UniProtKB/TrEMBL annotation, chains A, B:
Cytoplasm among keywords: no
InterPro entries reported for this sequence: GntR_C, TF_FadR/GntR_C, Tscrpt_reg_HTH_GntR, WH-like_DNA-bd_sf, WH_DNA-bd_sf
Name of a matching Pfam family: FCD
Assigned keywords, A-Z: DNA-binding, Transcription, Transcription regulation
Residue span, HTH gntR-type domain: 27-94
Domain of life: Bacteria
PANTHER family assigned to the protein according to its UniProt record, in alphabetical order: TRANSCRIPTIONAL REGULATOR, GNTR FAMILY (PTHR43537), UXU OPERON TRANSCRIPTIONAL REGULATOR (PTHR43537:SF5)
Entry GO MF terms: DNA binding
Taxonomic source organism: Ancylobacter amanitiformis
Protein name as annotated: DNA-binding GntR family transcriptional regulator
Amino acid sequence: MRSPKPLAASQIAAEPHGGSQAIHRAAGLAEEVYEAIFARLMALKIPPGARITVDNLVRELAVSQTPIREALGRLEGEGLVVKTHLVGYSAAPQITRRRFEELYDLRLLLEPEMAGRAAATMTDVALAELTAAAGVMSRNGGTDERARYSQFARQDAVFHDQILEVAGNELIRETLVHQHTHFHIFRLMFHARVTEEALDEHAAILAAFAARDPAAAEQAMRVHVERSRDRLLPAFDL
Amino acid sequence: MRSPKPLAASQIAAEPHGGSQAIHRAAGLAEEVYEAIFARLMALKIPPGARITVDNLVRELAVSQTPIREALGRLEGEGLVVKTHLVGYSAAPQITRRRFEELYDLRLLLEPEMAGRAAATMTDVALAELTAAAGVMSRNGGTDERARYSQFARQDAVFHDQILEVAGNELIRETLVHQHTHFHIFRLMFHARVTEEALDEHAAILAAFAARDPAAAEQAMRVHVERSRDRLLPAFDL
DNA sequence: CAATACGATATCCTATACGATTTCGTGCAG
DNA sequence: CTGCACGAAATCGTATAGGATATCGTATTG
């Protein structure tokens, strides 16, 4: 968990260049390899549980084994890949239902409280940025379902992350961002449908911020997280 | 010359449970390198911010560069070491005061709630184990200060971890354990004095568990964490 | 037909060599 | 005496080779 983490959920649509190079030695080769693998995981190009061979990555990325191993080790430390001795690396398995519930339990313990604090310390400029982020979400009616969801996933992550930033606790913010990367993969697997409800709930949170009402913000966030959980829970019954 | 020289048992300096040579083939060399470096960090044999050269590790552990790089990458993913391009690895810097306060903020949001849940679901056997762990802490009056603190640090970690285990949320448990590794290094740096207060506070938590009183357990844990914070805060004024 | 044994392939794991870059010590000039 | 420049040492980054092990397909036998 590194400090300058600029919310990495932005690599979702990274698919265009299908080439096998374009990796230049700008700031460390291992860094780029890491991001390349990370993007593949986030985009489900490597589905959960799938094997990850270093030879394939050597061919695809046109770099030697060493930086690839280093990047894989780092991903292992973050829990996104697992390694079994004499077998190799593979993407982390799909999240279990129990884990899912534990994650929402954690979110419910932290995010409403953080939303309440954010409401107390909200500045006008921060509120404007937050409203802008939420606004982008609502005005994309014509695009197709796939792109629409991708758009929502990014903006939803930004929305929650900005609230945590205003709340002021970087450690909690990093913790939730880290968990979000795991969660994102799960959500993508089931093509969770984005309903208008989520947008309405975001609007309710914004209203509480605008009123500088910590209690209302806390309650609105709690309702939002709980409903988000309930919207996704049926995915486990498939 | 393919003799896999066993890692020197130097990493078990603080661990009295040295179980001789272990299963090399089962776990992999990188695993052992990881644990060796981890132990060095926990024991402050590598102080915060110090450089970590792979050549030194090659000589000390008698293994090649590759498994060392892999282990360092994993440690980087966990945030215990940092890497700067074309400079190398170094131990993570000392925790800042702000980070310290954020950590206790997080603990206060989670641990009292978890203690309350634990009190509700506490079994007799779990309570006995917990009491045993707390009991070990109090009966070591004759030893020297250094060993006494080392003993306390281990048992305190076990105490809190067992409570989280009873509470039932593995994700929260893992999160706090992970943060504890960072915190442990800080606490060790300042030879934080272990007062009898901490033991009394643990006893109060146990009493609430014995009475199966969630509200009392939550309150006792809150008091304990807050006082722990206040005991350590003066270290930043040095 | 099913189950097991065997062998070929793929992959991991380790070791070593070489180039690129930073860092640090030393000497010289101001 | 201090600051700067230059060069040597140290270290990282990369690449390649070879040994060890698991996996998978095929053939053989009950």
